[in-house]
Design a protein that fits this description.
It is a single chain. This protein has 549 residues and is of the alpha/beta class. It is 29% helix and 17% strand. An eight-stranded parallel beta sheet has the order 13-12-11-5-2-1-15-14. Strands 16-17-18-22-20 form a five-stranded antiparallel beta sheet. Strand 16 and strand 17 form a beta hairpin. Helix 9 runs parallel beside helix 10 and helix 13 runs antiparallel to helix 14. The longest helix is centred in the middle third of the chain and has 18 residues. It starts with 11 loop residues before the first strand and ends with a strand. This is Alpha,alpha-phosphotrehalase. Belongs to the glycosyl hydrolase 13 family. Keywords: Glycosidase, Hydrolase.
């Protein structure tokens, strides 16, 4: 059995089980389907498999509304299937990471049901506040739109839900809550789980006094809250998490806090996700108001975080997409069939060789683009339906609102994985329509047979990241003010490499100040690399990696 790689040298692949592979012919992906594709994942070269939640859930928010942390939802399989997945992955040198949603539970969770039934001990596990049905305790807003408070007539109080109304926030100040969640982590570690991703974990600590936010939606009071670092250290200390790989999803966080979350001596988490770089195309900071990405701002944010985390000994998760984000090639590259393959490879090159642990979301290795659904009724995501309603109320037409959803909906990432030209996901109608049905070149089968495919480029990049220079080396950002080029060097023990990527549809001459003068390690387009002393001219969406002399 192969040992698992150090998390810094690893590449992590995110699986959205509902859309990965259906083994039962019901149109829903499941755990046996993941097991059936383990050889593919091992051949890709990834080291850990992060699965989004497959626990018992009413699926109001795609499984992020958990009703039982220790039970497998029958629609995904059984505990035996989880054990087979863990064992099968381990036999192939891969570890399984689970997604823990510890900021909130589903209102279908036994704890919340007992709270509504009047048991004070269970009400104390959530954030209930007294009041009248007409006046919420604060003016805080839900991240899914609308008030962050819901009135419970059963108990005559309001409860806090920072997300959907069916996702009630837990009270982490209650030691009983923390002990229960520690037990959940230990439960899965004992079954061989190799790591955890903790959903919006920087929101778990709320202030003692809750007050109106006269400057915003309330997030400044609970983001990176007053006791969050204490609670994460306790979680790690009490469960043995130090032996696992851990990543925290950090909502609206700061680099200063993320340094603290990930400095090894503090004993909190191995690495963090932050999303600042994925807001550079939000007009006025609004996700649902479109604008082209601000490329210079993208570089400023990415490289600013890279340097700050590196200087302080912190560690980042690097990524372009996930189950909550639209497809990267459509967002930061090009949907034009002439350029899409090159752009997908270019984005992979830019991202996978940064300092940090790269995450690949299923389908990114195929360069899957966004696609327009024909109607709001084709969407399944609760956030998208809420946003559509709000956009129509603001005066947008149906077509305009659908244009926005085509660029922003979380369902863009959740479409079925494409295994064959026909689809290959299920023998039944998928739970979410496949808008790429009939498209050529977008399946695993086709790309495995094509040496110049996006998939083959990902395999080469993953092998590069496994090299110590790219896994552990320091980063030196370059050309911060260049309007088209994304460039940096990596350095380790006298060795160095140069990465230069053209984010535009026009040829670009690379300034002589970063002239490679080395050996081409990898390019994303066919052709002869320039010789030393010649100008380096990158074609549209071209990316090159040089080992420097």
């Amino acid at each position: 059995m192969q040992p698992l790689r150090d998390f810094r040298q690893s590449v992590i692949y995110q699986i959205y089980p509902k859309s990965f592979q259906d083994s039962g012919g019901d149109g829903l992906g499941d755990l046996p389907g993941v097991v059936a594709r383990l050889d593919y994942l091992a051949a890709l070269g990834v080291d850990y498999l992060w699965l989004t939640p497959f626990f018992v859930s009413p699926q109001r928010d795609g499984g992020y509304d958990v009703a039982d942390y220790r039970a497998v939802d029958p629609r995904f399989g059984t505990m035996a299937d989880v054990e087979a997945l863990i064992a099968g992955a381990r036999e192939r040198g891969m570890g399984v990471m689970l997604d823990m949603v510890f900021n909130h539970t589903s209102t279908e969770h036994e704890w919340f049901k007992r709270a509504l039934a009047g048991e004070q001990a269970y009400q104390d596990r959530y954030i209930f506040r007294a009041g009248t049905p007409e006046q919420p305790p604060t003016n805080w807003q839900s991240k899914f739109g609308g008030p962050a408070w819901a009135w419970s007539p059963e108990v005559g109080k309001w409860y806090l839900h920072l997300f959907d109304v069916t996702q009630a926030d837990l009270n982490w100040d209650n030691p009983a809550v923390r002990r229960e969640l520690h037990d959940v982590v230990r439960f899965w570690l004992e079954r061989g789980v190799a790591g955890f991703r903790f959903d919006v974990v920087n929101l778990i600590s709320k202030p003692e006094v809750l007050e109106d936010d006269l400057q915003g939606d309330g997030r400044r009071f609970y983001t990176d809250g007053p006791r969050v670092h204490d609670y994460l250290r306790e979680l790690s200390r009490e469960t043995g998490l130090a032996q696992a790989v851990t990543v925290g999803e950090m909502s609206s966080t700061t680099v200063e806090h993320c340094i603290l979350y990930t400095q090894p001596q503090r004993g909190e988490l191995n690495m963090v996700f932050n999303f600042h770089h994925l807001k550079v195309d939000y007009a006025g900071g609004d996700k649902w108001t479109l604008m082209p990405p601000d490329f210079l701002e993208l570089k400023r944010i990415l490289f600013g975080w890279q340097q700050a985390m590196s200087d302080a000994g912190g560690w980042m998760a690097t990524f372009w997409g996930n189950h909550d984000q639209p497809r990267p090639v459509s967002r930061f590259g090009s949907d034009d069939p002439q350029h899409r393959t090159a752009a997908a490879k270019m984005l992979a090159t830019a991202g996978l060789l940064l300092r940090g642990t790269p995450y690949i979301f299923q389908g990114e290795e195929l360069g899957l683009p966004n696609a327009r659904f024909g109607s709001i009724h084709d969407y399944r995501d609760v956030e998208s339906h809420n946003a559509y309603t709000l956009m129509r109320e603001r005066g947008l037409s149906d077509a305009q609102a659908l244009d926005v959803l085509a660029a922003r909906s979380r369902d863009q990432a959740r479409t079925p994985m494409r295994w064959t030209p026909e689809g290959g996901f299920s023998t039944a109608e998928p739970w979410l329509a496949d808008p790429h049905a009939g498209a050529s070149g977008l399946s695993v089968q086709e790309q495995l047979a094509d040496p110049d495919s996006v998939l083959q480029h990902y395999r080469a990049l993953i092998a590069l990241h496994h090299q110590p220079l790219f896994a552990y080396g320091e980063i030196e950002p370059l050309l911060l003010n260049h309007p088209q080029l994304f460039a940096y060097r990596r350095h380790l023990e006298g060795k160095s490499a140069l990465v230069v990527c053209n984010f535009s549809a026009e040829p670009v001459t690379v300034p002589l100040t970063v002239s490679p003068g080395g050996t081409l390690l990898l390019g994303n387009l066919p052709g002869t690399a320039p010789q030393q002393g010649e100008d380096l001219i990158l074609r549209p969406y071209e990316a090159v990696v040089y080992r420097l002399a």
